[in-house]
Amino acid sequence: MAQCVLRVACVHDCDLMINPVGAGARGAGQRRLRRDRRAPAHRAVHARARQEREPIIAATVRHPAQRTTPMITLDSILAQAATRVDSFSRTAADIPYERKGVLYSEMLFLRAALGDSPPPRLVESGRARGQSTHLLAACLPGTQILSVEHDPNSPDVPVAAARLAPFANVKLLFGDSMVVVPELVQPGDAVLIDGPKGYRALRLAFDVLARCRPGVVFIHDCGLGSEERTFLDRHVPGTLYSDARAYVDRYAFLDEPCRAVHPDAARVQREAGRSYGPTVACLPYDPQRDYASLRRRSRMSALSDRVANGIRRRFGSPGHASSG
Question: Which of 220, 247, 249, 302 could be bridged to 194 by S-S, CB 3.0 to 4.6 A?
Fold first, then answer.
């Protein structure tokens, strides 16, 4: 079994800080890597540290054999949601909604997608005030939740720490998710990306899927018209969404407390081209799909969009005369 050695510093009982390894330690780590070139996990860390000049990251990670994940379809999600909605409603009733947070129907969608045998670990990218982490911890008591937040100095940090302190299955981590999350994810894990956003969220998802073989990756904020949704609809057919009409018709009632806080959070009567809510995308791992190619394509799409947006800002939208 390959072992990837990383460093973790404890902050308090459920709060960890992932620290870059210093220059001297990095040299020692690279010497250890050179002594065992046969380990593919070591070669991957060594190559990425050399090519991208990123710090070598956090914690001892063992990579077990690939966990078999049942096929996830919209029908399977609907069936699972029907059996779990009552217990989920009781659990969610004591968890307050945070403005712009994950909807309760979206979290039931995620829980239903994981089925009868949820994975032993779930890696969350983007914690903020901890609402989604709280729901995950309560709905998946047998799953270890590794939650990564970028800014340890955010005013949201103590709020999340206080609300999550009772949960022994939660570890709070800090660091750049683009670097940290791929180092944490093991084969068969579930992953929830709720930061970064846009094309960076897609690159993180495809990087994890290409390198780590998780069972499933969820991406939040994939509503119609978003960069994520536009790319996934075009290049990843079969992606499942929590705004599917068959799902929303059954479970929109769960979001009444969300609408009480933020009336536009979930739109039952939605206009054409707008999603019901922020929307969770579900990407089950497919061993036949070329995720490295999708990662490159998403990078090129981001560059193309930036160029097009720059042209529009400079010269105005097509069909409109320039002002001068």
Answer: 220
